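Below is how a single chain appears once it has passed through the pipeline. First comes the sequence as given, then the structure the pipeline wrote out for it. We keep one example in the README because the format questions we get most often are answered faster by looking than by reading.
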Amino acid sequence: MIDKEKINPQILKEWTAAKLPKNKYFVGDINSYLSSLEVATKSNLEARKILILAIRATKSEGGHTSAYVKNKIENWVANNLKTAAEVGQYVEDSQKIQSKGRYGQPIKQESKILAPTSDEIQQQNERWAKELGYESVEAMAKGTHDILINLRKTRAERLANKPKTGLTAHGNRVLKRF
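Resulting structure:
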């Protein structure tokens, strides 16, 4: 069994910063974590980096026991993560997926809005022209233009009629005072 002096000082520093218990078993726990990580990663340096990441993750997530660190390590080894960079990417991806919205409900991940192509726009315009009873897209554009021009010309008249109908500009009923 390796004593406390032979453990990497950075690991001990992180362990202390995370306020994990320093009982008579913690040195053995650290050694077992390192040995299992060395088998999984094939590198002492990567094993130490991943252990430090597990300790930091425990601290940031509010874990208070060495079992929390162990669960993090086992999860990462089970997902076949062999470097600290892979662990970082895995954690980032999982946080995106599991980010919480209001009242603890997960945020729904929506697909990105794709800009329509000119062909899709043309097909949509043709479909609308047919639905509205126009012969072509150009006829629909001219008809729409004429409707807008007519609305613009009659705007003053339509606004003048609103008070007579008892409706506001938005179409709501006006309250009358007696």
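The chain has a mean pLDDT of 83.

See the next section for the split statistics.
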